[in-house]
Structures are given as C-alpha cells and as structure tokens.
Amino acid sequence: MRYQRQESLRYTFQSPPPTTFTIIQIKGHPVETSNGSGYILNLSPNGMLLSTPLKIPFNQNVRLLLNPAFLHQSFDWKAEIVWGKQAGDTYHYGLTLLDDHQQEIINLLKQYKKHETNS
C-alpha cells in the first residue's frame, strides 16, 4: 500500500483539529490500548497525516480507531499506518482509511473550508 501524497483533494489544516485514537490491531491480532491523542495535519478522502507524541510501531500492520471532531461533529474512522517518521518531539504517521468514507470526508472538507472562509 502506498501513501498517495499527490491525491487531488488533500486539505492541509492551518489549525490542525485534535483527535483521539486507540490501537485496535497489530500484525492481524486484535488489541486494546488506552486512548492516545494527536492532531490531523492533513486529510483526504482516502487518508490523513496524523501527528502525535506517541511512538507507534508503524511497520507492523498497525490499525487505529480514530475519533476526530470537526465543526462540532465527531467521527469514528478505522485506518492503517502506512509510514511513520519522527518530527522533532512528535511523530508523523501517514494513514490510509480502511472503510469507505470518501463522500463523508469530501462533504466535511467542503463544510470546513466554507466555515474557515467565513470566520
């Protein structure tokens, strides 16, 4: 699986929205972890860039359940870590969404951009 940075609709947030997440699977085995927190730096219909202070073993088929909040709406998105790297005191992870949230995210990004323009 490749992270598609050239994807046509990728929105980079000026003020990244917060998210909580849990690790739900490692190497195909279900796991339960406590909540982690981070920020969504950019979002597209197929994936996102997550920033968090937590070091996650990204090369072990790690799946997350993310609970971001945008414009007073909360979401539950499952994603798999495609790549990761350290960025100063934090870690950045490229995620691909596992379920079909494309239309939901396109509508969300349109609302977010409209709200940002009117603010």
UniProtKB/TrEMBL annotation:
Residues 36-110 form the PilZ domain. Pfam families: PilZ (PF07238). One of its GO terms (molecular function) is cyclic-di-GMP binding. Gene3D superfamilies: predicted glycosyltransferase like domains (2.40.10.220). This is PilZ domain-containing protein. It comes from Halobacillus andaensis.
